[in-house]
Specification:
about 30% helix; TIM Barrel; 9 strands; alpha/beta; single chain; about 20% strand; eight-stranded parallel β-barrel
Length: about 240
């Protein structure tokens, strides 16, 4: 990794990053909502969140492509207009409103989800970010997102998400790409985010010579203790059940 890239991502190193806000049970407090983000802000933790673009080109904060799991609506965000999104059991926040809430108080790690018309969607997302002055980085499982950022937004810190356990219903070639991260030679990410217990210590050590290594998603405090000296930063959730200190 070049020294400039290393310097620019130092704001995420040696940090717990609150996954989808980090403090939620999806019963009283829901993931990717202003309520869980506020807890992370109060605790001084970096925040990881997910963004999608609606049919009418509004950027919203939500994890799944489909709304079924949390909203009980069998539809994708891409096929609905903002006004058509369900509001129960919680309103899906606009990205711009979340940026106003965070307002540079803590670093931000933004995952751009897979979508159609990737380049156009990235442009829409970056337009929302254009006046944001807080520290942030962008990551994605989709290498073309990173390649597009490299071509058109070269100063944005970008990272490749990787996992051998991606959804079972995606094509084998996509699974292989996600596991191998074979496009890194083209996309040149500054950091890698990988499933915390799916990479050998030897490989992590080797990759750390070239990339900042972030892991996801740690849910148990014992696993954080185990891996805190192995990775450079840790994406965690379920932290409402962790002991303080």
């Amino acid at each position: 990794m070049d020294l400039e890239g290393k310097r620019r991502i130092m704001f995420l190193e040696n940090r717990i990053i609150a996954h989808r806000g980090g403090f939620f049970d999806n019963q009283k407090i829901y993931e990717n909502t202003k309520e869980t983000f506020q807890i992370a802000i109060q605790k001084g933790l970096a925040i990881e969140l997910d963004v999608h673009v609606t049919k009418d080109e509004q950027v919203v904060v939500y994890h799944d492509d489909n709304l079924k799991r949390l909203m009980n609506v069998d539809a994708t965000i891409e096929e609905l207009r903002l006004e058509e999104l369900p509001t129960k059991p919680f309103p899906i926040p606009l990205f711009r409103d979340v940026l106003q809430q965070i307002d540079g108080k803590v670093p931000l790690l933004i995952e751009i989800k897979s979508m159609h018309q990737i380049g156009h969607s990235v442009d829409i997302i970056m337009n929302v970010l254009k006046d944001y002055t807080g520290e942030y980085a962008i990551q994605s499982f989709h290498p073309y997102v990173l390649l597009y950022l490299k071509w058109h937004y070269k100063n944005v810190i970008r990272g490749q998400l990787g996992s051998p356990n991606r959804q079972k219903d995606i094509p084998k070639i996509q699974k292989w790409i996600t596991k191998s991260m074979c496009f890194n030679i083209l996309t040149k990410p500054t950091f890698i985010s990988y499933e915390y217990n799916e990479m050998s210590f030897e490989k992590i050590t080797k990759l750390k010579k070239k990339y900042v290594m972030i892991c996801f998603t740690i849910r148990e405090q014992a696993d954080y203790t185990k891996y805190k000296n192995i990775y450079d930063a840790w994406i965690c959730e379920n932290m409402q059940n962790w002991k303080e200190g």
